[in-house]
Request: fold
Amino acid sequence: MKRPNGAGRNAAIHDYRDTRIFTVRAISGLVIVFLLTLILVARLVYLQVLSHEHFSTLSQKNRVTIYPIPPIRGLIYDRNGVVLAENIPTFHLELVPERIHDMEATIQQLQQLIAIDEEDVTRFHHELQRKRPFDSIPLRFRLDDEEVAKFAVNRYRFPGVEIKAGLTRHYPLGPLMAHVVGYVGRVSEADLKRIDAVNYRGTTHIGKTGIERSYESLLHGKVGYQQVETDVLGRQLRILDQTPPLSGQNLHLTIDAHLQQVAVDALGGENGALVAIDPNNGEILALVSTPSFDPNLFVSGISTTEYQALRTSLERPLFNRAIKGQYPPGSTIKPFIGLAGLELGKIDEDSTIFCRGIYFPEFRSQRPYRDWKRHGHGYTDLEKSVVESCDVYYYELAYRLGIDRISSFLARFGFGAPTGIRLPGEARGILPSREWKRRNRRQPWYPGETLITGIGQGYRLATPLQLAVATATLATEGLHLQPLLVRALEPPDSNQQTAQQAKVINRISIIDPYNWSTVKHAMTQVVHGPHGTARRIAQVEYRIAGKTGTSQVFGLKKDEKYDAEKLAKKLRDHALFIAFAPEEKPRIAVAVIVENGGSGGAVAAPVAGKVIDAFMRSEGE
Amino acid sequence: MQSGYSSRSAPRGDTAPPARGLAVRLHLDLPLLVGLLFLSGISLVVLYSAGEQNPDLIIRQATRLGIGFAVAFAIAQIPPRSFQYWAPWLYALGLALLIAVLLLGEVGKGAQRWLNFGLFRFQPSELMKIAVPMMAAQYLAGFHLPPRPRVIAVASLIILAPVLLIVKQPDLGTALLIAGAGGFVLLLSGIPKRLIFSVLGLLALAMPAIWYLMHDYQRQRVLTFLNPEADPLGAGYHIIQSKIAIGSGGWFGKGWLNGTQAYLDFLPESSTDFIFAVLGEEFGLTGILVLLAGYLFVVSRGMIIAIQAQDCFSRLLAGSLTLTFFIYFFVNIGMVTGLLPVVGLPLPLISYGGSSLVTMMAAFGILMSIQTHRKLVAS
Reply:
């Protein structure tokens, strides 16, 4: 009701009621104020009377300082218990700025004793900006014995400077595991945004790449705290209270360091990648990308020049080819296309196509499509097409299938999608289709592009890891697993391991399971048949099924410089090989790529052969 | 308006002029003035110790307090009717300035709060601390109490508009204070208890939903905010140190200038937000009880002024301003003793500096105006 203007009996009653309402509310308010104040008093009585003793102790000569105790980072082992990442005790030089009167002079005097370069000083000043009171800030990491001794003698000259013992991450196998394990580095501003900063108090390093990054939360553990009493000079007298940190979990990888070494040796200094998987459980046995780098460089801070050298090297050592490198799969795709043909009824085991080294498509075409063998393979059935890698057979088969059916069939093997491996930055490859081309290139699909898709060229790209996963899926007749890198987690001080299982992505069911054996048998003939393209790696003890591939490298980009030696190498084809063994009951599946290696059969197959052989021999023992 | 019916406002006879002392003629409310002077005295004493006996600090704080009292005195001269008349204009000006701050304000400490007028910088949210309760009171006083749902809805809009603008700056602490000041006006106006409880219930229900929608790291930050001791080197460092300071004070404290925590720099912000810990260490529980008595005296006097006020507008405004003052010292002491999360609120009238000191004294000026213009309205 709107308050009426003017007086009257009604207004008087309303005013009386207004006053009453307000007075009741105001007095209730005042009562609440007193009650809440009573809570404050109760709290103060608790602090000042009941806990007086406790706080009095803490405040006596009150120099209680709280230090974080960083947790010990979990170790990383290979599948046989070989240490891949450990923490070794080291000494570093730390400064407590509150206790240093002239920072510049102190640093200059320190520089006369110990090698401290400008980058150390810059980083030090940067960290000075975001420190808390009485934090000590590291100036130099990993002092050697001589430097420690030198400083110890001169210590009296440097109040507020101390040598701290700490643990530094170390990778004993160096470059061998760099692309799998990755490395840790100093916690950066960007890192702070994606982590819980509280849990990283006192932690100086954080996983930057590889397992170290993707399993960071498990490896790191939980921070602890220490309340320490110090004297006037800041020396620690005794520990008053302590919350111990919780160490990170140890990781047991699926990788076999020995097999990894065999693979690196087999690649023999070429640029390339190799992935070996146990097809039955998805465990990755080896994941190699060459060339590699020494991850230990990054732990204590890599110098700018060294980093630039790694970054700009034409060999791209920092690039993990196994999961990020995307290559045309070439002829290694043929067994999968062949299976698609059988499955979709476009061919059967015995149907033949006549190959005379050149293919004229039914549609109007600018050019004929050539086979790698100039005079052709003659009458060719599926097995011969795989064994001799006949291109014409697959031009025709691809034409019959059509691009969309090819792509949707290959998608079931994981092509065109990340495999889900727990490593940062995995590439997804390209599985082209009409829809894909319309979206990404804004062009219609041309029929000729379907033909070259049949031999793994054109837009199609796959990572070595995708090829290995697809091969493993073929080997197990349809068990498509998410590749697994960590087979067990081990909580600190427990000696109990929790095993990890690979996730089943898909169980490919096909209409006629016999088709699997048809294709697998053809692949066995690639290695063991008289005309096989990889017959040089055949062993007597067991049978390998494989497929070679050679993928074209496209011409130089316009602005690339002409460099005769490098150009020649760069123009050469990539050599590929996929394989699994033994044929009957596969235990290992491998995919290899040797960049600019030339022929798949001559270059890539022997690499895989050595790895498979090493694996089979160690299994046999 | 009310003269004929109110027994309070009709002294002895109509012919005799109301008995008025010098204080009332100067529009000063003596009890309130005494309370404020008492608290200011405590401020200077504690600050002398907390500021490491720096005389400059004391002189600057005394000057600020002096300016504060001058503002209170000046505002006390304005009759409440003028506040009521100007409330919408003041409120509209405040809103315009808040929008201006968002569009062209200066960024300081990561938030846009200031308007630069060349000679001085001005924080429009300070103005709103008074303009919002004033406007809400003015609006609600236009209707009979208790307000009807539609009136409550409009009043809520009046309060929420500036609050949202301030949240956007972002200055969550001030936004909550202003929401509180407006909310007190509504509570005092007698809105149904059912409504109060259902709003509280709704807020409680919304918490898990918001919690569910948050990312892990955001949850972690909220947890640290609620439980700073989980982070003993960041937010928790303040709390641990201030608890040590207060706890070690005991019954009677270590004596003036004998506190160790602030001197040794263990206690951060000892002159500003955490000055209460210095008081607790040096004067003990006794000193704290004296301070609390001073605060409660001021709050009680404010509520008496509100209850005695003769019109609805004055009552609501006086009550709201008084309760907001309570919130200041309750939240600050709760934070310093580790009962409440750490939010940057100063201890009112005691902490060094603070742009809010002038605003607070202006509010006390309004209280004095309401009290001392009372009898003039009545006649």
Q: What stands out?
A: Residues 250 and 350 of chain A are 54 Å apart (CA to CA).
